[in-house]
Amino acid sequence: MALPSPQSTSQVAETEKDFDLLKCSKIENGKKEAEIHLVGYRFDPSEDQIVVFYLFNKILGRELPINDIIKEISVYGHDPDELPNGDFKHGVDCNEAFYFAYTEQVYSSRGKITRRTTKSGYWDLDGEEEEVKYGNGDITVGFEKVMVFHKGTAPNGIETDFIMHEYRVNPLIVPTHVLNDSIRAKIERYVVCRIIHEGISNYQPTFKLPPGWTTRPVDEGEPN
Length: 224
Known about the structure:
It is found in: Nucleus. By secondary structure, this protein is of the alpha+beta class.
């Protein structure tokens, strides 16, 4: 089944009010990785594909393009080096893992904040939160935070080679008629975490199903 990529969509609604998130994210037939047999491709979704096709559909309990790539795990309940090494097989460099996760919000002297500490360290924000645009248009479908994992206690932890991109849905584009207390809570707290382990390479053949899959050039000496 060929599905349109947000990045290849030629027409994008001019205003968020006109943007039909339910329609553009609809998946007809989700599959499992084991059902896909096109070798030489990588799961390497763009930011808008992660938000529109995976996170939003997961929040609503709808069909996903593929069902077993993005696992559900308590990301902030684990140090990243505790995550299965076999999960880090995606992306162009085969060193990325993808997870659905809930964020934990706590109250402090600064108001409500998101807790991102683990047993042995913490995720430290690297820059400001960025908007995720739909394709080449102006519609903000989500937001992205980039963080680096540090061992130890803030602010004196030791930087590691784990980097995380955390994606959340823009609540302003979710149609009001699908909202209930459960959906609102998920929109506020449910995210996709794209964790990159720099310095490792897990090259091995994987499979293809759009949206979110890309080819990886074969280097000399690698199998094809």
